[in-house]
Amino acid sequence: MTRPASRMPQPPATPAIRRTAAACIAFAFTMVGLAYASVPLYNMFCRVTGYDGTPLVGDAPATAVLDRTVSIRFDTNVAAGLPWIFTPETAEIQARIGETQTVFFRVRNEGRAPATGIATFNVQPGPAGGVFVKLKCFCFDEQTLRPGETMDFPVVFYIDPSIKDDPTLDGLSAITLSYTYFASRNGRPLASVDTGARPKL
């Protein structure tokens, strides 16, 4: 009858090994936390600075209106999986720098069941995000439409007069404000952009 092999006693962990293990665990938790925090922190940074074509958020009209005008173009898209039609009331306006503008966007649910969507946005060219100031916007507000229901949403904005002090925007003559509606759940978009043509309302 064979006897089971005896296990060699393990040496107790030294304080240095315990410190190293604790540091590795803390590092892993820190990396996980940063991964979750990076998206909202990046979004907040973009909204504050206008980086990467993200419009600024304002709470009051501009303090001055300039003679210079800029063409503002409006682009609308609907992601796959959301049976909505989404259009601006006009494709383009001429806006004086610093003058408050209001443009309405219309969405209609063409599906046979209620659907929930959320709109994301950006401004092109990217540097123009630093002077495009939104006072009111439907973006990031989750909306639920019944079958056949139509809703109109306003966007209120102005181009900041500080554009005259930015040499990189001296020749800027047109800005495109682009929106995409995604199917959403719990305030988060679910689908990718559908680039197919959409009928107009």
Q: Span from first to last CA? A: 88 Å
Count of spatially separate domains: 2
Report the order of strands and helices: HEEEEEEEEEEEE
Mean pLDDT: 79
Our count of helices gives 1
CATH topology annotation of the largest domain: Ctag/Cox11 (Pfam 04442)
- Radius of gyration using CA atoms only: 26 Å
Helix content: 10-25%
Percent of residues in beta strands: 35-45%
So, CATH architecture of the largest domain? Sandwich
CATH superfamily of the largest domain: Ctag/Cox11
Based on secondary structure, the structural category is alpha+beta
Describe it for me?
This protein is an alpha+beta fold and 201 residues long. The protein has 2 domains: 15-49; 56-194, Ctag/Cox11 (Pfam 04442). It contains 1 helix and 12 strands; from the N terminus they run αββββββββββββ. The strands form 2 sheets. Strands 2, 4, 6, 8, 10, 11 and 12 form a 7-stranded mixed beta sheet that branches. The chain starts with 14 loop residues before the first helix and ends in a 7-residue tail after the last strand. The model is unreliable at 30-53 and 192-201 (pLDDT under 50).
